[in-house]
Amino acid sequence: MTGRIQIDLFSTLDGVQQAPGGPDEDTDGGFAFGGWQAPVMDEADGEQIMAGIRAMDALLLGRRTYDIFAGFWPRQLDGADSEIARKFDGIPKYVASRGTPALSWRDSHLIGGDLATEVAALRERHSDIHVIGSIDFARSLVAEGLFDQLNLWVYPIVLGAGKRLFPDDGLPTTLELLAPPTSSPKGTLFLRYGPGNGAPTAGDMSRADRGV
């Protein structure tokens, strides 16, 4: 078995992915728009997100996102979001950290060695592994090509400052579109990308190397 690594990120039009879920999720840098996703989300992108959650058989998270999830989802097992909570609670959760955090959520496991080796081991253990949020960690996976699919829900909202998968000082890279984009009634774009062919190259729009 060779499992797939999927990265799920909710993004504004200007690429901000910080704290989509709630006001107190991540206030680093004085971020004041926590919970920005809720007002612009609709049934169509909700169904896409739920389809991914139902299919996954493991979570792979950065330390900060794990702490947020562990503090929230175990308390929602009988609430309005019980389907999500029970799914997350019932599957293994792997946490990427250089430290030795206490992992209190059941079936949680620390991975802290060589990233490529750890990801290869997870692929042999699971079929559909999802990274949700975890921006810094997701950035490392994309930079090293250690993913199969980057799922981006891009919402028609602009926030300015905030954490991004692709920051101004990020590593230049290319991506491959895996499926045609889809849109929701409220204007959300669902984009699916795989690893590209390394660093971007330059061309000349006046010659045949325009790529069109």
From TrEMBL:
Pfam families: RibD_C (PF01872). This is Dihydrofolate reductase family protein. The lineage of its organism: Bacteria, Bacillati, Actinomycetota, Actinomycetes, Micrococcales. Residues 5-177 form the Bacterial bifunctional deaminase-reductase C-terminal domain. InterPro entries: DHFR-like_dom_sf (IPR024072), RibDG_C (IPR002734). It comes from the Bacteria.
